[in-house]
Specification:
By secondary structure, the chain is α/β, with parallel strands linked by helices. It has one domain: HUPs (Rossmann fold), CATH 3.40.50. It contains 7 helices and 11 strands. The strands form 2 sheets. The chain has a 9-stranded mixed β-sheet, with helices on both faces. Strands 2-3 form a two-stranded antiparallel ribbon. Pfam families: ETF. Belongs to the ETF beta-subunit/FixA family. InterPro entries: ET-Flavoprotein_bsu_CS (IPR000049), ETF_a/b_N (IPR014730), ETF_b (IPR012255), ETF_beta_N (IPR033948), Rossmann-like_a/b/a_fold (IPR014729).
Length: about 250
Amino acid sequence: MKVMVAVKRVLDYNVKPRVRSDGSGLDLTNAKMSMNPFDEIAMEEAVRLKEAGVATEVVAVSCGTVQSQETLRTALAIGADRAILVETNAELQPLAVAKLLRAIVGKEAPDLILLGKQAIDDDANQTGQMLAALAGLPQATFASKLSVEGERLLVEREVDGGAETLASPMPAIVTSDLRLNEPRYVTLPSIMKAKKKPLETMSPEALGVDVAPRLQTVRIEEPTARKAGVRVSDVSALLTALRNEAKVL
């Protein structure tokens, strides 16, 4: 069974985003970048399937600038067998990424496609669903548990009333939630081995995909600063403060 995992290079989750002075986007100058955490969970799950003898090959795929090779090398260090980079400097929106992944699915014919449920930079939560629609494949989103039984895929996902289990034939697309697993710590020997693993580069043009943006970002602004709180001595003072606040509002 071949597993394909899509990974994205994003601003590290420990870094506070800075908005450019002109409001045109985020300032990523000298900023630390890393693999999208949800994609890292998806990669970990794919490697665990291989270690359990369920999967025979894990292929990592990323779409973006040449710097995305670093993210793919991390995926290879986690345990992917090889990597594919669709290199482009264009602004990639979810639909464009889904089209690129659809083209690679057509070339690779994986039995299982794993993605993070969303990327922490745009929080779109769209790529997995769009890919399923374009490829005509069944999907299971927000997976908190995954198992393979013969030709059938079982996915447990959290819902408002508790948890539900979905059964799907393969090939299928699954997006990972935080509770799916805890990604492993990448060791130095694994990083060294990753440098020798194959990494293929191709272009959107070679795949016959138009990645021109369909949406335009008008402006990005910092969130409004939160007002400082006040301390009150007793319940009476609290009620007075609330009444005064209500009058102001």
